[in-house]
Amino acid sequence: MIFKLNVRGAILVAAAITGLVTLASPARADQCDDIAKQLASGIDRLKVNFKAANIIYLTHPAAKELSLGCRAQGQNYSNELYAKGDRKPTPQFYDLVASAAAIIFTVPKDDTAKGATRCLKRMGLLRGDKVSMRFKRLNMDCSRTKTEASIAITRPKDE
User: Fold this and answer.
1) How many structural domains is the chain composed of?
2) Is residue 123 part of a domain?
3) What is the extent of the structural domain holding 119?
4) pLDDT tens digits along 54-92
5) Does some domain include residue 142?
6) What span is annotated as the signal peptide, if there is one (predicted)?
7) Residue 77 — φ and ψ, nearest 5°?
8) What number of other Cβ atoms are within 10 A of residue 128's Cβ?
9) Is 7 a member of any domain?
């Protein structure tokens, strides 16, 4: 028994299968862009400015600086929220940070509000101008200068 190989037919079948596979797989947008869109739609007066490398810069009246950092190779965190405000943060700033962290890290807003408030209020005479803490599987790093206070919230990759 000798099987005759039809090369033209085999190539046609392979091309058809390849075409079906590419049509069946949905086009994926960047996860970081999706999170930025969720933030813009979920928080009033928050606007997405521009993206540079793995950082999306955002604006809101309650914050001086606001950015969403997404993981690049070699980094040990999944996403990062960075917010900078006045030295004595306003309730609107706390609410903004809590809302954004809740959307980014899919944690209840009450938990992120409590963690951000604790971190920002611990800075002072006894603990200094830099505080690092862990709350509800989130790493929070707070720092302040003479005029500004900032918070960076991250979640490790393995959690």
Assistant:
1) 1
2) yes
3) 31-156
4) 899 999 999 999 999 987 655 656 789 999 999 999 999
5) yes
6) 1-29
7) -130, 160
8) 11
9) no
